[in-house]
Amino acid sequence: MALRVLLIDDDVRLFELLSSYLEQNGFHVIGAPDGPRGLAALEAGTFDVVLLDVMMPGMDGIEVCRRIRQKNSIPILMLTARGDETDRVVGLEIGADDYVPKPFSPRELVARIKAVLRRARPEAAGERIVAGDIVIDVPGRVVTRDGALVELTGLEFDLLCALARRPGRVVARDALLSEAGRGDVIVGERTVDVHISHLRQKLGDDPRAPRLIKTVRGVGYVLAKEKS
């Protein structure tokens, strides 16, 4: 499953260069051209890491970092052309995980991202998601419910992971495939609905009155936090 990167930077050229390189290295990149839209994207979606430019018009990266840290522990890498040690210290003091001065090589940035993720998620190499009576062995792509093996297709597995990583929170229907890191899937009007229906059946959820994967009408789906 591709790791999701939120790049908050007003430099369109940099976004194009980084998104191309990062996507070749297993990342899915979403861009936001300013602080307010970056904060909104973080509220609406699920990401693994934030790349945050310091020098932006209006709300600068320091303020954006401060606001993210009020609500979220997601890894943050600050990007800046400034060489002032004070800026680096302030960024780190308010919660940034690393500080990468521009210009930098994309290869170095990938190494820095991976290092930050290793520190933030030391268990990722053997990631195991538990949501109620569902247990997901992510590297092995194995799912059990109440101890019984559940056979899923690749897409169903990725959709379940996307929901299970944020139990109790709604994932919008039109965002669910990208949340699952499946930008390769062509989305029709009912694509997500059909796959969620199949997933419910395989998990033993009642399609007439689902208690496990619930529909939030007009919005999307949510995986129940507790055993149903």
TrEMBL record:
It is found in: Cytoplasm. The modification 4-aspartylphosphate is found at residue 53. Residues 4-117 form the Response regulatory domain. InterPro entries: CheY-like_superfamily (IPR011006), CpxR-like_REC (IPR058124), OmpR/PhoB-type_DNA-bd (IPR001867), Sig_transdc_resp-reg_C-effctor (IPR016032), Sig_transdc_resp-reg_receiver (IPR001789), WalR-like (IPR039420), WH-like_DNA-bd_sf (IPR036388). Its main location: cytoplasm. Keywords: Cytoplasm, DNA-binding, Phosphoprotein, Transcription, Transcription regulation, Two-component regulatory system. The keyword Ion transport does not apply. GO terms for molecular function: phosphorelay response regulator activity; transcription cis-regulatory region binding. One of its GO terms (cellular component) is protein-DNA complex. SUPFAM superfamilies: C-terminal effector domain of the bipartite response regulators (SSF46894), CheY-like (SSF52172). Residues 126-225 bind DNA. Residues 126-225 form the OmpR/PhoB-type domain. It comes from the Bacteria. PANTHER family: REGULATOR OF RPOS, TRANSCRIPTIONAL REGULATORY PROTEIN CPXR. Pfam families: Response_reg, Trans_reg_C. It comes from Polyangium spumosum. This is Response regulator. GO terms for biological process: regulation of DNA-templated transcription. Gene3D superfamilies: 3.40.50.2300, 6.10.250.690, Winged helix-like DNA-binding domain superfamily/Winged helix DNA-binding domain (1.10.10.10). The keyword Aminoacyl-tRNA synthetase does not apply.
